[in-house]
Structures are given as C-alpha cells and as structure tokens.
Amino acid sequence: MADKAKPGKAANKTPPKSPGDPAKEKSAKRLSLESEGTNEGAAAPELSALEEAFRKFAIHGDTRATGKEMHGKNWSKLCKDCQVIDGKNVTITDVDIVFSKIKGKSCRTITFEQFKEALEELSKKRFKDKSNEEAIQEIHKLIEGKAPIISGVTKAISSPTVSRLTDTSKFTGSHKERFDPSGKGKGKAGRVDLVDESGYVPGYKHAGTYDHKVQGGK
C-alpha cells in the first residue's frame, strides 16, 4: 500500500502550469496572425494609402466607427473632398446611385472591397478618355493619402454695422447703464436698481467725505 501511495505524492509535487501561459500563447498567435496580415498587405503597397484614406473617412464624425465600414454620408464626403465629383462627368447623384448599387439591399454601409468596386464604377465616368486600368489608377490617386476636410470655425466679419451695434459707448437708455465707461458690463448693478443706503444724494460729488470732515474738526 505504501509503494502505491508514493507515485501519487510524486504526481502531486508536479508544479501546475502558470496561469499566464494561455494568455501568452494567445498573444503569440495574435501577433503571428497580424504579421501574416501585414505581409499580405505588403503585397499590394499601392493600395495601402487608399485603405488609409478609406478608414479616415469611415470614422469621420462617428466615435463608435471601427474604420472597416463606411456610411453613405461619409462616402459622399470622400468623393466631394477628394474631387471625385467634378460636377460634369461625376455628380453627387452619380455618387449616390453607385453607393446604392454596390451596398447590400439590407445594408447601410460598404466595406473596403465594396469601396474599391464603387471607385471602379465611378472611374469609368470620371476618366472617360482613359482605359479601365488607367482610370482606376487616376481615381485612386485622387483619394490616396487624403483625409476629411474639417470646416473651420466661422470668423467674425468686421463691418461698420457690426461695430456700431457692439460699441457700448454709443448705447443709450437702459442699455447704456449696463456698461461702465470702459465697456465692461456692470453685472447685476447694471440690470437692477440697487438702493443707495449711504445717506448721500445720488450723484453728490463729495459723497463719503462727511466722516473725514467730522473727525478732522475734532
């Protein structure tokens, strides 16, 4: 009986695997897959800049977007910002028609592969005088390396009318009472009639000098 128990004790002494080992194995697999994906992407370097532009436009205005799919609104913005729409050969209507044609019936977005198909459709209209391959290359050049154009904050336009309306020195009536001579607002004092409890008549030039005179006389 003692001989049979010994092997069991020896088996219990075998140290268990570190709980971190499975995580390391998963991370190693993920890295290997990513490296394989990088190698596959390196096979078509001319599309890397195009895909980068696709992702930038795909996430524009949507914090939850992953960059893998693009909505119709962002597709239209891409075609407009990258000058795919020229107003002659390609219009906003053409862009919308192609998007509806490429995307699935129940889908609202397109993938990068569908994006390239849509560009191929538009390239035929945008560059009519070129071959299919040349037209695709030209339309890719319009988009590669581009990013969404963000509209800046509207700047204030200085004009005589605006200056007159914002010049506090020309205000009259109750509006004038809301600002001091420097143009700074008085706050509540400019909106509400505050009771003067100093004992002096409003506007008296020597207000606050009585105590000094009395003390001086003593």
From TrEMBL:
The keyword Cytoplasm applies. It comes from the Eukaryota. Residues 22-33, 174-183 have a biased composition (Basic and acidic residues). Keywords: Cytoplasm. The keyword Cytoplasm applies. One of its GO terms (biological process) is microtubule bundle formation. Residues 1-45, 167-191 are annotated as: Disordered. It is found in: Cytoplasm. GO terms for cellular component: cytoplasm; microtubule. SUPFAM superfamilies: EF-hand (SSF47473). GO terms for molecular function: tubulin binding. Its main location: cytoplasm. It holds the Pfam family p25-alpha. Coiled coil: none annotated. Belongs to the TPPP family. This is Tubulin polymerization-promoting protein. It comes from Phascolarctos cinereus (Koala). The lineage of its organism: Eukaryota, Metazoa, Chordata, Craniata, Vertebrata.
